[in-house]
Design a protein that fits this description.
With 414 residues, this protein is of the alpha/beta class. It contains 9 helices and 14 strands. Helix 1 runs antiparallel to helix 2, helix 3 crosses helix 9 and helix 4 packs across helix 6. The longest helix has 21 residues. The radius of gyration is 26 Å and the shape is globular. The N terminus is likely disordered.
Length: 414
Amino acid sequence: MKYLVNSRHDLAVVAILLPVVFALGQEGIMAAEASLGPLARSSNRLTLTSPTPYVVFQRSAFNSAKVRIAGRADAPIALVEAKATLMAPYLQGIDGKSGELVEIARPATSEFVGDLEVPAGGWYAIEVVAKDAQGKVVAQGEVSKVGVGEVFVAAGHSFCSNFQGDAPSKAMDDRVATCADWSDAPPTPISFRHCDDPLRPGDQDRASPWPSVGDVLVGQWRVPVLFICTGVGGSTVEGWRKGAEDPAATERGYRACRLTLQHLTPVTGLRAVIWFGNENDFWAGPTAEQFRDNLRNLIAHSRIDSGCKDLPWLIAFDAYDPGVTKKLGADEKQRRKERLDRGTELVLETVPYTYDGPQTDDLGPEFRRSDGDHFNAAGVRQLGIRFARKITQAFFPPPPPSPQLSRPASLRAP
């Protein structure tokens, strides 16, 4: 008989039970198998195709998510069970909650797919057990670092992408994740990793704001956060709008976002798109109404491509570029900035489920790189705080304080 021993605990149990095995024969073997658990009773492994490490599933209004579990065994199986176990060092009841094995599928073939309801939190280890028609465990598999939390797609120009700081940044909390490296389309099969810059499709080997934003959010919410960056340096709102309207358009911008919304976020779910990309429209100088129309049409197409008619957008204000002052003068720059800001406000006033993001133009030279425009390390830290604050205000506003009620006794004449 074969035993698959996967931990020091199992080895210790084997050492304790061996005398029982020799003393009791078949009864000893049965006792050993029961103590070692399902994995020890099978030398077969399941091949799991979903979930994968560092994936985060968007939590619902009920603070949980259905985690899709799929895979195959070496032979037909009758029953598949699964459970989520909160990994160390995360705290039960605070960072998530472990569950028990529950049935997720009755495939009658070697391939299976099912959903497991998992509470918000993580990281979890997902254990999957396959049984035959007699209820005997025939195979088992496990995937670590699976989360239920918040998922965001970041979009825009170089502020959104890897043009900040002097070197790539790194999320300090392991529960901040991103998708695996890609340039034009999500990888196949879809995979994820820790949120270390450069994110893809990054234009430069520098920092982005999202590891910093993720650290703040995870610290506040105690759930994993996934950022998928689709920002493209040098792009404009007008260019993104043209790319959204015509997939064959050559303008820099929307293609990566479209593919993400069509192929990646249907797997994970999605809380919102975060837009950080107004500044480059300085140069074309659109009116407030023209800018509004470009951004409004872009949002509309993203909702079509995502299949979510109410897909939320959080929109930052950015129109800082000192190069505009040098070429057009301070007065003209101010007029153009006011039009961009007003165009953004018009979108926020007229397009449902759009939310105001941070104002970043007050972050002056001490927060900028030597090019005078992109953010340095101090600026990236400020972006982390500001975006996290606005995201929380938009999607998790605190309840209002209790009003002061009338106190009739106080109305009595002295």
